[in-house]
Amino acid sequence: MKFKKALRLTVCVALALLLAAGGYLAYVFLSYSRLPDNQALAVNVLYKGGILLDQSDSPGSPPTVGAQYRIVSCNIGFGAYSDDYGFFMDGGTESRARSPEAVTENVRGAIGALADCAPDLMLIQEVDTDGTRSWHMDETLVIRDVLTSHFAGKALYHDFAQNYDSPYLMYPLTQPHGANQSGILTVSAFPITSALRRSLPIETGFTKFLDLDRCYSVSRIPVSGGGELALYNLHLSAYTSDGTIAAEQLRMLLEDMQSEYEAGNWCVAGGDFNKDLLGDSFAYFGASDKEYTWAQPIPPGTFDGVDIRLAAPLDEANPVPSCRNADGPYRAGQYVVTVDGFLVSPNITVGKAAVIDTGFR
């Protein structure tokens, strides 16, 4: 009798677990959807004291041909990545920022480093607006606070494109990654007249639940004397089965930029490519103590038929990587690579492109 009771209990527990797992999988699949393509984005203006103004009430001069401007790009890693952080998707053990205070400290530090460069244009990726992993903090508010203190009295135009809205992910079981909303933020010292979100192709298998709702945004900035600067913000796929999707995404972006260039506009794209933009980062930074394959070089032939060219940030006398594999705290010999950079049309001259060395703080 005792054996039968134990057996029935075991069967009931197993069935309950199977039902719970099946219910959860159904929830994840039914919750999945992609944001629409060609989505118009709201353009707001950040002005003194953090006041949001309508564009028609805001000052600002357009860029001029022949002048030199500075653009910066940064993936802020949802405010979690200090130099001692290890992310579970990279082989580490952590799935969330350590605390709300850590989120604030990391976001303020990253944006402060960008603002110290006195940029005219800023492209920021992996900005959470509400997420388990970032303690439900709206990081755009932290960014706005930093920018108003660095650029007091100066109007800053900005638009935000969402590229992640996940159901509650139960992995890892000890500290689930949870439900998260995130996106890419573009900031300009010049008036942005309109902005658009373009959906990128993604994998169709199970990996789509681990990847973001990939997209790029294009912000239109009138240029003095006629024409527009088409400013692109991007974050291409990383955790894919074979890396071909990121190449398809890049090709779509290049063709879009080519069309803008042929229409007489100036084009700059920047962000996190999740590709080895130097072709062989080992040649510049040395071999790592562990080998990883997620950051592949851009495939040969990708730029065939377009005039757009890559501007990878590199100071050959003092090469600095833009990314590390966060399998644990930053250390000598850790896998490092440059995955962040820019694309430009032929009518734009690149004076210099380099990585800000913060030691991955």
Task: Provide structural commentary.
With 361 residues, the protein is of the alpha+beta class. It has one domain: Deoxyribonuclease I, Chain A (4-Layer Sandwich), CATH 3.60.10.10. Helix content is 23%, strand content 26%. The strands form three sheets. The protein has a seven-stranded mixed sheet with strand order 1-8-9-10-11-15-12, with helices on one face. Helix 2 (100-115) packs parallel to helix 3 (139-150). The protein is globular and about 90 Å long.
Summarize the structure.
By secondary structure, the protein is α+β, with helices and mostly antiparallel strands.
Number of strands: 15
Per the CATH scheme, the topology name is Deoxyribonuclease I, Chain A
Q: How many independent structural domains?
A: 1
Which percent band covers the strand fraction? 25-35%
- Residue windows where pLDDT falls under 50 for at least 5 positions: none
Helix run count: 5
Characteristics of this structure?
globular; 5 helices; alpha+beta; 361 residues; six-stranded mixed β-sheet; seven-stranded mixed β-sheet; 26% strand; 23% helix
